[in-house]
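Entry, Tuesday afternoon. Goal for today is a structural model of the target with zinc ion bound, before we commit to ordering more compound. Inputs were pasted exactly as handed over by J.K., no edits. I checked the ligand SMILES twice against the vendor sheet because last time a stereocentre got dropped in transcription.
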Amino acid sequence: MSDPATETKTLDRHECRACGYVYNPQKGDSRSEIAPGTAFADLPQSWTCPVCGARKSVFQNVGELEGASGFKENQRYGLGVNGMTEGQKSLLIFGGLVVGILFLLSFYGLQ
Ligand SMILES: [Zn+2]
């Protein structure tokens, strides 16, 4: 008969109220060499927020991660690089051509 004592530990996540960092016990904290599966209560008193350095007392229990299937962390928004429409691009190219032609005309006009 095995006695799974580890199951009595809660794996509630804790959010840093200073910067919003969320400590996930299922992941641990690699920067502080905290192994995955370490409950927040088991973290050493010297442990601080890896982002802003806040103490444990600043953290707030935000409960366990809901549902193991859907990871919201995988949601990614677009990079926001492609902000220009095709019209704006062609306008930019056309505008560049006009400026170039005007430059050439003025250059020849000087002679
Ligand atoms: Zn923080």
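Residues 67-81 have pLDDT under 50 and may be disordered.
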